[in-house]
Model the fold of this input.
Amino acid sequence: MEGDIEKKLKNLKEILKKMGTVLVAFSGGVDSTFLLRVAKDVLGEKVIAVTALSPTYPREEVEEAKKISKKMGVRHILIETRELEDSNFVNNPPTRCYYCKRELFSTLKKIAEENNLRWVADGSNLDDTGDFRPGMQAARELGVRSPLKEAHLGKSDIRELSKKLGLSTWNKPSLACLASRFPYGMRIKKEELLKVEEAERFLRKMGISQIRVRHYGDTARIEVREDEIPKLFENEKRNKVIEKFKQLGYTYITVDLEGYRTGSMNEVLKKSD
Done:
């Protein structure tokens, strides 16, 4: 296994070397941080990072992305995206991510051209092919590369290699756009995105690592890892969660006994197939 993961890393470096120059769509998460670090090691000044500012992206993650890119010595550009002005996105169909990524990648391609960079790359990895991800279609249409996926690197590989490289993100919880907290068909509104962001921030401060607060209007469905579910009921934590969520406007606060899992909002799509 050790040799296999090293071969994948070598393959990734060869892919990036052939790409020559690259703009990395940088969220500051596990995957894009690892990609940016390896790209910096291989390409030096021929790589830049771009982070999109949006109500769908937690503000504390923006600050984290700024710190990481500065520490790496990578030029970092912040842009604002306007997906909340697009009815195709706001109406929240199952293809929502396609419209968001289409706008984002179109903007990134223009920035890449302005900076004489041949490629735009995202942090999609091999494991991402196992779920419903319409954003990948936008990437294909616009010629955006996914070097981690091309090198057959999965999430566990990326975490292991990130740890070896000394990246602080190696064990960072998986992140996702805040719009993924809304059931398909429910309109996405800025004030409700901010409500979800605040609810998840509150739970993180309580010492819970992997969190999704799924938003159903006046009801919140809290997903945490199965082993962290008991934390929600320790001492006064339960009462504090209830108080905070009521303050945010939720009438009903529920805990999903199945626990956190990637793409839980897509489970309704599988039932309808």
Remarks:
- DSSP finds eleven helices and seven strands in the chain.
- The radius of gyration is 19 Å.
